[in-house]
Amino acid sequence: MGALPWLLLLLLLRAAEGYSGDDVDAEEVVGVLQESISLPVEIPADEEVENIIWSSSASLAVVIPGREGQPTKIVLTNPRYQRRVSLVGPNYSLRISNLSWEDSGLYYAQVNLRTSQASTMQRYSLRVYRRLSEPHVSVNFEMAAEESCNLSLACSVEEAGQDVTYSWISQEDCRDTVHEGSALSASWRPGDSVPSYTCRATNPVSTIYSQPIPARSFCADPHFPEKTSTYSCLLAKGLLLLLLFAILGAGLWCVRAQRGCQAPRTRKLERNGLRLRRKEQPSPSLV
């Protein structure tokens, strides 16, 4: 056990004296705040690993594969990752749990190979994001000349962080139109179909939508009939259902009518047969 600290020091010095990996493209890795992420390690075929030295802005951990049935050891060299680091899979991929904003940045894995006595450097660029909450929408409107209504909508997300994109989805006449940006200006005239507007916020780990906002909520005019796209869709569906019920009712009526026509004819034939039988019976003789 006394030789272990010296071994770790030697490995760290070897990593520092080796190449920095600046000529290696970093693999983009996206993580979610307070969740886990795995940094995969690629090991060349037919190679045996001597050790893996993990580092970030400072040293992180050293992985020492077990020999002759012994378990693999992972020795932390950075207390900030205490109880948050583990190994995943046979290739000694590093798993970091309970991610924080401070975990974002570059990570290096120096894989020292025993078979070829060579080293490979693998680099990762970790970005941590928060899952977005429901967008907040603010609406301003004014009744302009010629009885038109002007709307100004703005969308935002609390504690959104970086790399958040906004777009507006307007639904009119059962069609969706996308407008990029967090702000949207629209105009509506009474008597026209009234669209509804939905804000969509997206970042690399989540996509969230606001509640639909119908323009009639702010631009209603009692002197003009309102015909929203939603109303048109519902009306079309209602008419289709009524048509189906009418066809079904007509079919049932035809079936009952045919049965009704056949029943009197059957009863008539039965009466005629009864009369014939009566005529065929001999009249009683008088003694």
Automatic annotation (TrEMBL):
One Pfam family from the record: V-set
GO CC field: external side of plasma membrane
Boundaries of every Ig-like domain copy: 135-210
InterPro entries, A to Z: CD2/SLAM_rcpt, Ig-like_dom, Ig-like_dom_sf, Ig-like_fold, Ig_sub, Ig_V-set
Membrane topology (UniProt): Single-pass type I membrane protein
Lineage top rank: taxon: Eukaryota
Keywords: Adaptive immunity, Disulfide bond, Glycoprotein, Immunity, Immunoglobulin domain, Innate immunity, Membrane, Signal, Transmembrane, Transmembrane helix
Signal sequence coordinates: 1-18
GO BP: any one term: adaptive immune response
Transmembrane segments annotated in the record for this chain: 234-255
Cell compartment(s), UniProt: Membrane
PROSITE patterns on file: IG_LIKE
Listed PANTHER family: SIGNALING LYMPHOCYTIC ACTIVATION MOLECULE, SLAM FAMILY MEMBER 9
Full protein name: (raccoon dog) hypothetical protein
Organism: Nyctereutes procyonoides (Raccoon dog)
